[in-house]
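Exercise 3.2. Students should predict the tertiary structure of the chain below and write it as structure tokens, then compare their answer with the key that follows.

Predict this chain's 3D structure.
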Amino acid sequence: MTPTVTTVSDVRDQLAALPTEAFTRLQYLAPAVGCFNRCAFCSQGAGRDVWQLTEDGLTGLLTALADTADQRGLAVASGRIHRPRVVFPYLDNDIGSYPHLDAYAALARERLGVRLRVSTVGFSARSPQLTAMHQRLVADFGDVFDGIRFSVTPYTWGFADRGPGMSRAAYVEDLAAALRVYRPLLDHLGHGAASAACELRFAPLLGLSELTDTTVDGRRVLACGPHLLIAREQGGEVLPETVIERLDEHTQPVFSRPGTVFLHVVSDHVAPTAETVRTALAGTLAVPHRSEWVRVHRFANADGPYYAADPDFHPDGTFTALHLYPKTALRKAAGYTDATRWFLNTLLAHKQAHGLERRAEFHDATGHDVDAVLAALLDEAQALKETDATAAEHLRTSVHPQVAAYASALERAGYPPSTFFSRRFTIDTGQIVNQGRAKALLRGLAATDGEPMTPREERGFGQVSLSTVRGPIWRITPLPLSRAGHLPISVAGLKNPATTSPSLLVEELDPCHLSPVMRTTGCRLRRHVLTLPSGWIEHVDLTTGRAAHLLPGLATAA
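Answer key:
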């Protein structure tokens, strides 16, 4: 039997049969799946190999998509309230390493009439082709970009020094090169979380330990690891549940209850005994410790109840949230996450010491100020050794190296020290969230993939969240190819079924979890698989990607 040959006309016919919303509510128009960076916390569970549209495939598909939309009187991406007329060329891929992004930008502007929102960990400056392509983007296609975000994480293989030829020093050089290339465009867009920024996402500070939830001397007491919480008022009742009722006009969560006042004692040397409770409340605790008054809430997620102390930002802009998780039928481990934003808090303290308000820009900052923040992080780590050795180690081996690498990249890229302090450009987004592969890093404290573990996560992608009000969205992307029709998840990724012929996935997604199933109802959303012409998709395996320096942080391809 003669194999069926798919033509461009066939692609147009298939696009014409798609629902209207596949055009008007399109958000993720990704020309590739898979990512060589292999971040251990990847929220989308990207595979290690890449399948991407060739330049001919990209041109053919986007032209056909634009023509079909025009014929049907539809404006691509016009039906979303979140960034209408903007598409995201990424989901489980890193668009910074896509070699035809300049051609994509040209088609977005000239045929689709949309702008692009880009998020990337950067690209390898050791690739002349990628470097030249990004330079063309900045020089010729700046008007196509709605926003650009550089993601600075400790999980890229370059930063983590994982694998042959990978190097943190090379990662810093590559990040600096990317920031240098993009600086004119970032400045043109205007710095801000929605327009042009660097986001730092940190590894979680967590401990696995039984959660004591009891009454001592007539007061409710919670204890887990180095954290002891003692109710200010007597009465041993279980805390009532707090829920997020809504988001306010500033998109911040509004809690149903104000929380209960507890004394939070941090010490590696205390136990929840009556003597400890009495001396802690009297201020005469004789062992090394820190203490402060906090408001404690009892929340619940799909895995069961959990506690949160001061779960949101303080009025001065600092963030010190603590979350305590008991074992449940689903949650197989008990423990805590200390979500303190050490970098943010240290930046704010340094600005305050110079007489600056928390939102003020530090225009007169110098390299000495940057060095002072880095030194303050190490000083805090040293100070914590007597009270919370786990936090001290986390600061010394995780937070400080990541911030130091970022500071070095900014300096090498020629950015002024004020950028390091700018709340509009340098954004500490806190610890990783429970999405995709991050679940494994939470070591049993999360049982359900994609389930918010904190009130801040609930605000981002929970049932009362920014995403919920936006409604379902659509994704279009090529699919992995395999003669056998199946591939390991580690190769193809969590989201992409393998196919035996060149194919395009067009699917509707829950905006909270970016899944083709609505979490609240369990209903399967619409999915279509289109056949593409031969030669429109190419497979780039990890070995080939390394040889071509298609990931940052690769010092040598050997």
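Discussion points: The mean pLDDT is 95. Residues 63 and 558 are 39 Å apart (CA to CA).
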